Amino acid sequence: MARSERVDVMVAMNVQTYAEDMASVRPGGWLIYDSTWPRSQLLDREDIDVVGVPLSRMCNEHFDTVRARILMKNIAYVGVVAALLDIDVEVIHSLLGETFASKSHLVESNLEAIRIGYDYACKNFQCPLPVRVEKMDKTADHIIIDGNTAAGLGCVYAGATVGAWYPITPSTSLMDAYKMFCKQYRVDEEGKKRFCIVQAEDELAAIGVVLGAAWNGARAFTPTSGPGISLMNEFIGFAYYAEVPAVIFDVQRTGPSTGMPTRTQQCDLLFCAYASHGDTRHVLLFPSNPAECFYMAPAAFDLADRLQTPVMVLSDIDIGMNDWMCPDLKWDNEYKPDKGKVLSAEDLQGMEKFYRYLDVDGDGIPYRTLPGEDPKGAYFTRGSGHSKYGTYTENPDDYQEVVDRLLIKWDTARGLVPEPEIQYSKFNQNAILSLGSCDGAVKEAIVKLKEKNIGLNYCRVRAFPFSDAIRDFIDKHDRIYVVEQNRDAQLRTLLMLDIDAAPEKLLPMLHYNGLPVSADFIMDRVLDESAKGQAA
Amino acid sequence: MSYMAKPKVSHPNMPRNKLGLTVRDYEGGVSTLCAGCGHDSITAAIIQAVFELGIEPHRLAKTSGIGCSSKTPAYFASQSHGFNSVHGRMASVTTGANAANRDLTYIGVSGDGDSLSIGMGQFAHVIRRNLNMCYIIENNGVYGLTKGQYSASADVGSVAKKAEPNRQMPIDPVSTAIGLGATYIARSFSGDKQQLVPLIKGALTHRGFALLDVISPCVTFNDNQGSTKSYAYTRQHFHRVIDADYIEPSAEIVAAYNEGEALPVQLHDGSNIVFRKLDKDYDPTSRAAAFSFLRDSINQGEIITGLLYINQSTGDMHSDENTVASPLSQLTYDELNPGRKKLAELMHRYR
Fold first, then answer.
1. How many Cβ atoms are within 10 Å of A258's Cβ, its own excluded?
2. B1 falls in which pLDDT band (50, 70, 90)?
């Protein structure tokens, strides 16, 4: 289930947004408000139930200090809601105990406030309401976690030792999580750290630190958001051309420019896919929930090391900062990091001569050496024109040979990136193709549309470049709704650019106001399109 | 211009260092800079310094940005890895490299444009991190590759070839570094190899951030009359205030020094820098004294050279961060991976 756009029960505590809050309640829903002061008659609605509770008056009567009187209003309504929705008060008690573990004196006053609200609601209204909370056991073996925390944890499990960053909303909590888990798992008996976090002066430096560390053999990463990627562009192109691994987490926020830093979008797809000047292409991963943020972290490092190129993991605010319910994260102890084609001193001793950019294996991926290993492995890493031998060049053929080989590597990448998640039935001619945090809304919409006899298949792409499975999926359908959260249909454009997908087949379905896309939005659009199709 | 390997011409009687290598083993490709460029003299001094120190070639890592200066790591130590990064970003790349492997010796070569304009932020912050590296600015007051525009180190009134006199205040890397708290700060002149070699050796050995600002005339765009960064002007106005001898850890200090003029300072590996004070009032361990002496000399139109300031009492980025002694890049995955059981336990926190 995805987030709904409809509000069943609204608690309107904020005078400034009162009218807006009330308008968002669905017909037949409930509005709870502080009835201490009279409400404007202009704001009445006939189609909802209004529940007035004199929260301010009750708190003024029960509490002595001004501070408590103001603060406790916001707790007293929890008691009202608990009574109306039949929430177990014991659960609230235990949560309060956890929240104020270090300030136990606050537990008493908070409990009292809840009791006031609860008793008032029970006495004055018919409790519970027809909508209510019911205890279920569907959450066994599940956790509640946000994507940034999961990604930070994933970096620890991936074996990343160097993290560089510049603080930016909404990616900050990713590095906070990495630091927290490192302190828990990566400090030795003497208190020494098996990790190094560099809070850089800006994103230009953060990515530079990542490249320096990766060049030197460490797994290194940087978390950022759109504006940070803008600044990193020059180095991303360098890493592509000089073939240095790097892992970048882009927790996308609403653009362009500063945009709405606290709102979500999938607006950096095209920009990340081709970041930096010149002919460049980058491997992207698209997690759809926090669990996937965790598992895609080691996958990103493996790909970056294997392909010797930057890999960007594109989550967004919705995944990164909101709590989601996910199956327990599990770790396979058999996992070994894929460090890619790195020659050891021993390997080098057995070679006549080492050249950095030769395509020895025909997969477009050359061998690399690490500083400090052996004098035979020395080479000069440069962003200027270079030949397959690693030497500076302005020779047209030598230059072109290298950039052509990078295309062979791109095709190798196509076969290495995570495959799409596909729901397919041969009875459906139409489908939805989407990515990332749209997943919940898409799946819910597909179920609801099925009830209306509209059957749709589903392909959730998990990486760029697009694998053959995605091309096949598109080929098999007459019409594909491309659901994504940006204005300019960036995923659709990428499909056209990367695998020549036929534009007439791909119907853009775009949600980009900064809020997460809902199932209703997708369902309504599909119904509109279906109606149009029938009329025509 | 294509890359050219320098032919190795060696003589059996050439001096060898403690590794049995000759100076030829520390050379690089043929320079493509203009004949007479100061940078080539600095390259020669670097080769001499790393040879004399007996650094294993593959344990040296060379980094640079963009510009004439930043091309030079291709001209020395061809058996060492090099990272010619993007404009003004050598400091961040070196930070990452050092974070990953603290055991290598890092030498970064930059220019006045690369460090004082586009890379000013990174220059300041690498000092702040006290990164264990030798940072060389090959300072000529102009942008050479783009044909002679003034850089931020050009002096007021200085005239480059075919240009109006510079009117903007210069940024002096040495004063800036003292202000920011760098722990080894030297200035020299590309034409003074005798002074330069021990300064580079000290900078490579010093633990923490070492800055070497080397006046290095641009023969093509800024070596004319009226320029304050020309060979002629620098030779007339440079003033060695304090020379420094680098003494190997095992060696004794044998040179004769006049009473009150010699000041030995021990480096972390047991080697010594012995200051020879040509100006007896100068105290190279006082930041305030170094700064005021430097500003006075600038006001008098003098270019003072030598090891102007040293502080051996601080650590570096790794000691500040309290990282393990072995390089992070060489830790095994078993040392980094918390494992399946720990993850299962952690899940209870997120129920």
1. 10
2. very low
